[in-house]
Amino acid sequence: MSLAPQLTRTLIAAFVACLLIGGMVNRAAAQDAPEVEKQPTSEIHGVVTYADTGRPLRYSRVNLIHNDNGAYQKSEVTDGRGRFVITGVAAGRYLICVDATGILSPGRYEQKMGSVAAQLRVNGTRDFFSEVDVNGTDNVDVKVQAVRGGVITGRVLDDDDQPVAEADVKLLKLENGKWVAVESTWQIFRPMKTDPSGVYRIAGLASGEYAVRVSEPDAGSDEIAPGDEAYSNGSQMVVYHPAATTLKEAQTVSVSEGSETSGIDVRIPDRIPRTISGTLTVGPDKQPARSAEIRIERVDEAGLLVAMEATTRPDLEGKWELRGIPAGEYRITFSGSVRLGSQESGGWYNAAPKEVSFSIANEDVVLNESLSFGATVLGTVKVDGAATDDMEGTFVGVVSAGASTRPPGVDRNSFARNFSSGYLRDKGKFRIDGLSAGKYWVVLRGIDSEKYYVKSVTRKGVDLGQKPFTINAGAVLDDVLVTLGVDLATIEGALSETKPKTSPTNVVVILAPANDATRRFSRGLVMLQPDAQGKFSFQCGPGEYFVTAFTRAEIEKLKTPITEDYFKQDNQKFVRVKVAAGEKLKGVALPLGAR
């Protein structure tokens, strides 16, 4: 027998064996290799048109916002026909918002208490956005309507009817009986100013009642001799339309979407600016409190925006001065770190804040004040008894017990005035300095409520979560322990059938704490939209809660805003549930139209 055929068969068999072995190796390698994450391929194709004319909105930015957390995703610019395409969109529920001059927009999107759309609707914001569901694979077509906002325009004139150029113009809006700053006009980096003819024009306003606030321009110089009736910073020389020197006397301006309210002139009366000065000391030895912060604010605008307050600091002898202050009612705050001693042997110390209210009439004011050294609170945040560094962005704070029985529920301005905090450091350690003597609640801000809840706040076995603690001037309160839990409870349910049937997209489901014990460390009201089948699911800490649902029409008819106080008025309107740590409560049925 010839060797050639045998050799050929041997080589073929070896080749086949190599192929089989190679295939097995490749399959094994493929099984061992980590899976490559599949990239989303969904695209959102859309067109933006004006709601009133149907004409395209050209060359304007469109923002994609995640509905669950308010996180900004992507943005694109419309073309000459108002069209846009957003590629690579992952599965989820989104809002599409138009960012263009004169077009109404929801404004702030960041939301960690349920869905953004639900929160906007409960807050009375009209649908200045479009909603879209994406599965991460298929493309979606959407039509976006841009709603023109209202416009306020007018002139700023002096007492001789001469135009005032470079005057700052800002707006306040009346919401639920309170004046709030219209943030787009209070931005310090993009201030609204009058032109050389004293003309101003503010567009993109939602319907409502407004107050037009004007302050005189910054002269750009501090070199003014004492006693001169002049000032370098006109931010406190405030006037409201038409010529009011207090917010209470301001004449409101009605604005409607898509219309222009013109002739809203502001005349600046002739006033003599006054000077506030004094000496600031600290401690029993009355040492100069150099470098402390001194902040003055108008009482009628207190808390509107910190950036608009006038500030200064004492010199080496503790002397300070604020100029350009017209007659009125004011509040001044002394606070912050002070420098004591020499450069070689001195140091920084935290002073307890002090507030003084006073009036200015026809003469300058002198305020000589002394501060005390601040108290300190030290402690640790632990997760189920173990220290952690995974708490970035979280900080522990204390709020004066006089501010509220439940600190996180007070309004933003009041809360900010009574709140002091310290960010978490290594292993969850925190430090809060510069506290006045008094009673305080411990609170947490910035906690990831989808992962943690507050189980307890204690010190040496004493529960600080049920009543405020007391701290004396200059004292140090240490060993405060904040314990977080991760075994969140779940509350699931669905909307009851209604006739006529209501689309779930027009419904907001709300979870609200039902008693003080639950309110103490809850994240407040949690709002979300049910899915297409009307189902909903909340995660929360253990406690007692109200669950209810509102249609869009019901929200619009309410005479009072939906706040935590609303849920204390009539408990019979709401479904009450109680959950333990880690419990999964199912089958909660919510009827509609009960209000």
List strands and helices in order, with pairings.
Elements: H1 3-32, E1 42-50, E2 61-66, E3 72-77, E4 83-89, E5 92-99, H2 116-122, E6 130-134, E7 140-146, E8 150-157, E9 168-175, E10 178-181, E11 199-205, E12 208-215, E13 238-240, E14 253-255, E15 260-261, E16 266-267, E17 274-282, E18 287-288, E19 293-298, E20 310-312, E21 319-325, E22 328-340, E23 347-360, E24 365-366, E25 369-371, E26 375-383, E27 386-387, E28 395-400, H3 412-417, E29 419-423, E30 429-435, E31 438-445, E32 453-459, E33 462-463, E34 469-471, E35 476-485, E36 489-495, E37 507-513, H4 516-519, E38 526-528, E39 535-540, E40 543-551, H5 552-557, E41 575-579, E42 584-590
Parallel strand pairs: 1-7, 8-15, 8-16, 17-24, 17-25, 26-35, 36-42
Antiparallel strand pairs: 1-4, 2-3, 2-5, 5-6, 8-11, 9-10, 9-12, 12-13, 12-14, 17-18, 17-21, 19-20, 19-22, 22-23, 26-27, 26-30, 28-29, 28-31, 31-34, 32-33, 32-35, 36-39, 37-38, 37-40, 40-41
Number of helices: 5
The 3D shape can be described as globular
Q: Give the DSSP E fraction (strand runs of 2 or more residues).
A: 35-45%
Mean pLDDT: 83
What's the story with the biggest beta sheet?
Answer: 6 strands, mixed
Regions with little confidence, pLDDT below 50 for 5+ residues? 1-5, 15-21, 221-226, 405-417
Any idea how many domains? Answer: 5
| Oligomeric state of the chains in view | single chain
